[in-house]
Structure formats: C-alpha cells, structure tokens
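Let us begin with a simple case.
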Amino acid sequence: MTDLSGRTALVTGGAQGLGEGMARALAAAGAKVAVADLKDDQGVKVAESIGGTFVHLDVTDDASWEAGAAAAVDALGGLDILVNNAGVEITSLVTELDPNDVKKMLEVNVLGTALGLKHGLRTMRPDGAAGNGGVIINVASVAATIAFPGISVYSATKSAVDRLTRVAAMESGKLGYGVRINCIYPGLVPTEMGVGLAVDTANLGLFESPDAAVAGVVELTPSGRLGTVEDMADAVAFLASDQAKFINGVGLPVDGGMGM
C-alpha cells in the first residue's frame, strides 16, 4: 500500500471528477490534503469529507496562485505534493474552432499548469515557505500521444503540459530544488468531461453515437475497457510516494495501452 503519512498535498480542480478522486486517494494514503477549486461549495464538501481543507483558487491567475499556495501551507503546515489537475476540454473540428474556446483551453491547461509549477517550486524549494522539496504531478492526457478527432487544441495543450513537466524537472534538478516533477497521461474516463467528449464527437458526426465513440476508444485500448477515476488516482498516489523516488521528468501513461 502507498504510504503518504505525514505528507501534505494540494490538488487543483479537486472539487469533482479526477481531481476529487486524486484528493481522496492521497488522503486515504495518509496525506493531509487541500482541495483547490473555483467551485467553493463542492470543494468544501469534498475537503470536509476527507478531513482536509479547501482553498479557493483560479489557476489562471498569478496572484490567486500566490495566495492559494500560502493558504495551503498555513492550513496544512507545509506542502510536499502538488497535483496540477485542473483542466478544460472543448470539442471542435479544426475548421470550426472558436478563438475564445482556444484561449480558454490555453489559459486553463497551459497557463494554469505553468503557474502551478512556478508557485509549487517556489514554495517547496529550500528558500520557500515549505522548504523541504517534494513532488509535483501534472495531469496531461492520452490525447497528447494520439490523433483523436475533435480535440485538436486540447491535445496541443496536453502536449504542452508534457513539455512543461520535463523542462521544469530539469530546472529543479539543476538548481537543487529537491522537487521531482512528473505527469500522467490519463485515458478516457467516464467523468462529466469524458461523457461530454463522447456526446460532442457524436454530435460533430465523427461517430454514429456517443456509445459508438466509447466503443471506438475501447477498441483502441489493449486492456479492453475505459479507465476509472481510481486508476488515475492510484497512479498519482504512487508517483507522490517514495516508491517512485527515482522517477523524475517523465510522462506515465495510465491509459490501458491506448497510446502505445
């Protein structure tokens, strides 16, 4: 069993979906967890249910990150683990892209992750408010490794998350920050976002129906099923633990082989 006893963690987008599952998995492994989100009511409920704390956070805003990281350190007594999970997916054919949708995905998925890395490293490095090193885990997507129709910009943003991960890991090592940085590539999970993707791609005429879209994903997956929230959460807990202490600067596929 993964043991995170005595560790402290902040999970962005932790009020629902994969983020909620990751927060619960970290807490179950013994960590004290701060759930960070814009959805205050939902976030507070999740935090209370796992004995953690809630932090209001807009991942696209630098000042919000500065305040949120400080609040997490104050509430938890430190910060050892940061999960940059917050993300948004807006389905569209390339020929029909809406610039506002593109900007939103870039801001949440790329800028949000970049600012998370910035403030996570500043907090965890030796001169930071926590100052004991730690682990940062970014949530990319199998979309960064395959050409799935309807999600061109989302795929591009998740590819950017992969690159941010690797460069930040190298900088952390070179500068002696003591922070390991990895990302995971989740496969399709039937959360609100995952179900919405199936519906949207069918509406665009890419599949005959949402069920056909799901079947198409399963057909591409050697494990023969969709992923679960628990699959993704377990991978995050593992990467946060000492069991992964020599894993750094990589992307871990948690996709049942879909992106092989």
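The second case is a distinct protein. As before, the sequence precedes its structure tokens.
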Amino acid sequence: MTQPLTRRQLLERSALLAAAPLLPLQAFAQERRFEPQPGAWRTFDLVTTVNVTEVLGTTRLWLPIPDVASDWQQPLENSWSGNAKRARIVADPARGVRMLYAEFEPAAGTPTLTLTSRLRTRDRAVDWSEHGRISEDPALLRANLAPTTLLPTDGIVRKTAVEATRGAKTDLDKVRAIYQWVVANAHREPTVRGCGSGDIKAMLETGNLGGKCADLNAVFVGLCRSAGIPARDVYGLRLAPSAFGYKELGANPANLKGAQHCRAEVFLRE
C-alpha cells in the first residue's frame, strides 16, 4: 500500500521543473496523476449578495469582480440589482483592479446588493516545449517587480532574498532556491484568520513564518521581486470541486463561503 505523502513531500514534487520564456511558473503537487490539460470551457455565474444590517449614514460597498483575462479564464459580463442610489464599475488607479462600487442613502432602509458575474474557465497547463508562446506587456512585468506596502523589496526582505539565492546564477535557479527556502522555513498555520494579511516584513522580522495562502504566497512573491524576478499573487475563488480529488483545490459551487484562495506566479525568461 502506498504511504501518504507528507506536506513537504507534496510541495517538493511541485512544478518547479524547467524554464520557459516568459511563462508563469506554478507549484502544484503531482500525486494522484495531477495532470490538468486545457480542454472545454465551463461557464459560471458567480453570485454575491450583501445585506448591510447596521446602517450609520451613507453606506458604500466595493465588491470585487473577476478581472484576470488569460488562456484559462475569461470574464464575460456583470449585472447587479438592489436598492443602491448609484452603482458602477470602478478601478483602483494604482493596481487597475476592477470592482463594483455602490452607494446607498440612509433613507433606503437596509442596503441590499446582488452582483452576478459571468465568467468561463478551463483547466490550466503550461507546455514547457512551446517556447515564445506568451508575450507579456513590459508594463505588467515592471508592476510585478514593484514594492508595495505589504510587499517591500528592501531591508530584511532583500537580505533574506540574497541569503536564499546565494550561489544561484539563473532566474530559474533563484526561483527554485526561494521556493525551497519557503518550503523549509514557512508553514501553514490554521489558526490564522481568513487567508492571512500577507505582511511579509512583519513575518520576517518576528521570525513567525506561519500563515495561510496570502501569507505564504506573499513571502515567495516578495522574495522573487527583491531578487529582480517579476512575480505576483493572484487572488480569487475556487468555483468547483477538484477533478483530481483534492479538497483544498476545489469548492462547493452552491456555497463559496471559505472558497477564497491565493496562488503565486513568477515570470521566467529563457
């Protein structure tokens, strides 16, 4: 009988396998023949309903909408209903993230808003033999090198990145070294609220590297950026059960409470 793998064994079997020009590198365990292949598109209606029970003056809501357009996800349309005085799609000027903004007058009673976002997705896989298949916008790569409030690239973050990548020559070698450093030093802490805050400076300064997806992925992304390698964390929802039997990679489509998740991507040049 095959013995179950430990968490570290699962992580060490992830997909840090080979370089490809400007392709996102993802870490997925290979047990149970985890071999997703791009196939048929599946369309989902993602419905979010908000009822504000405690009202003090004007109420304002910002609800995220699906916004990553790629060869594995395509946002289609958004519609909404409720008793908002005004509602419109807006974007964060600094990051370009889009969301639905709604404003309610005090006389409206209980603020109610239902947002329906239609999107389609399919299994994602990277063919490492297809060189030059993806061409990324230089502005996007610059953005994925920039520091943020929770992802600084100097100080202890830079010091840690230098230590983790000592002796590594290529970008791929550096990414592998950073990944192995995170595996060896960080761990998932189930008592952390939500997905975590992703405050990597505080994590590194205190030495407390326990967290959830937003914390662990942020450490990886921050160290990559500090090493001069474009990286980002992608936030979203798990919409459907895993086709490969992984509870952690799937969700109950009837109720997505608790289905929030974060994953890390790094962009590699040949």
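Residues 171-185 form the longest helix (15 residues). Helices lie at 7-12, 138-143, 155-164, 171-185, 200-206, 213-226.
Keep these points in mind for the review questions at the end of the chapter.
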